[in-house]
Write a structure and sequence with these properties.
signal; nine-stranded antiparallel sheet; 414 residues; 2 domains; 8 helices; Ricin_B-like_lectins
């Protein structure tokens, strides 16, 4: 199959030859029409608006993909008011819908409002509906694009390639664990978190513009109402919270396995129960759960991990990554580190590191987590720096970041 670039070079040679013949014959050659400029459209996590598999059929999905410079990401009309075109067709809202969640697709250009767009203050607004292009649900490669009410969410930030990108933008892997506190949404945005969780099926107590990931905390939450709430609240579901601890979900492996089909029945991407410790140990709680899940034909899509270090020295980040690697080596599944930090729980009250020790750990740990391909996401415990959590939290109730918060804000941007 001849590549588009080869065809383009041939066309240039033909035009040049005809121009020369016209000059020889004493005929003035007509000026060639100026080609329209094109560019990539860059969004959340530095990914691009892309036509699925470079398909040209009307109805082809348009999604978020790693920027790669192919024709499927080459858009004409960016920065103008009107159609956005790629592969000879137009960016279109399916069915001309004005509803939140309406999918975006490639379609024959027809001049309707469903194909009219304007780039305004970092948002791509469909003028027919007045709604914004949105990578709703996060920054994962393959996220299908849609329109939603314009909200200023990071997933609605777009810019032409070379135009500085959507700023400031969250870091795709980076998240926070939090509970309700006054500047919750501001803190999530300020530290650059692309996602967050609050150990519940709904973000009603901590609404924010970042992606919310619901959790089924324990056996009491395995009911129709909470499972339906989780389905409405996100695309990915976190499993039971520290079922190996009496003070947490406190579940036997067998009980967790018996309940797991209810979680799987949501159809959501599903994270394992997050044990408090020993996830890599043969015969441990998680090991027995995953073995039982295989035997029963149950699905687990990634491993959720918790890790807290009681050693506060310069090598603390190596201890974290050693644990993460051991778990991945044992199970071969992607990893989400859904809680991590430096806290020595063996002492009463718990012992905490100094601010500088926290900064050093955050700098090293987040750099390693960002650089590790099988680590999909991580979230610090915890966002609020208040009460007993003041020594290790990221964001104060007065709306300012701690030293640890400032370090976490910089994570993923180096």
């Amino acid at each position: 199959m001849t590549s588009p670039n080869v065809s383009r070079r041939r066309l240039v040679r033909v035009i040049a030859a005809l121009t020369c013949l016209a000059a020889v014959a004493g005929v003035a050659a007509a000026p060639a029409a100026m080609a329209e400029s094109s560019t990539q459209i860059v969004g959340v996590a530095g990914k691009c608006v892309d036509v699925q598999w470079a398909g040209t059929a009307s109805g082809t999905t348009v999604w978020l993909w790693d920027c790669n410079g192919t024709n499927a990401q080459d858009w004409v009309g960016v920065g103008q008011r009107g159609a956005l075109r790629a592969l000879g067709k137009c960016l279109d809202v399916s069915g001309g819908s004005h509803s939140d969640g309406a999918r975006v697709q490639l379609w024959e250009c027809n001049g309707t409002g469903a194909q009219s767009w304007v780039l305004d203050d970092g948002r791509l607004i469909n003028t027919g509906s007045g709604k914004c292009l949105d990578a709703f649900g996060g920054a994962a490669t393959g996220t299908e694009l849609q329109i939603r009410s314009c909200s200023g969410a990071p997933t609605q930030a777009w810019a032409p390639a070379g135009g500085g990108g959507p700023a400031p933008g969250p870091v795709a892997k980076k998240g926070v664990a939090t509970w309700a506190f006054p500047p919750g949404a501001d803190g999530i945005r300020d530290v650059g978190a692309a996602w967050y969780h609050d150990w519940s099926p709904s973000n009603s107590d901590v609404p924010a513009q970042a992606e919310f990931v619901p959790m089924i905390w324990g056996a009491a939450f395995v009911n129709d109402a909470d499972l339906a709430t989780a389905q409405r609240s996100g695309r990915t579901l976190l499993g039971f919270n520290e079922p190996d601890l009496p003070m947490q979900a406190n579940m036997s492996v067998e009980h967790a396995l018996d309940l797991w089909p209810r979680l799987q029945g949501t159809g959501m991407r599903l994270g394992s129960p997050a044990v408090a410790f020993g996830a890599h140990i043969p015969g441990g709680w998680l090991d027995r759960f995953l073995s039982g899940a295989r035997d029963r034909g149950l699905r687990v899509d990634f491993i959720a991990l918790h890790w807290y270090g009681s050693y506060f020295g310069d090598e603390a980040a190596l201890h974290l990554m050693d644990y993460v690697q051991k778990v991945h080596d044992r199970y071969g599944l992607p990893i989400w580190v859904t809680e991590f930090g430096l806290i020595d729980f063996s002492e009463k009250p718990p012992r905490y590191p100094s601010p500088q020790q926290l900064v050093t750990f955050i700098d090293k740990a987040t750099a390693a987590l960002e650089a590790t391909p099988y680590v999909e996401r991580y979230s610090w415990f915890a966002l609020p720096a208040a009460g007993e959590h003041a020594p290790h939290g990221l964001y104060r109730e007065n709306g300012t970041a701690t030293e640890a918060g400032a370090a976490y804000r910089a994570a993923g941007r180096r």
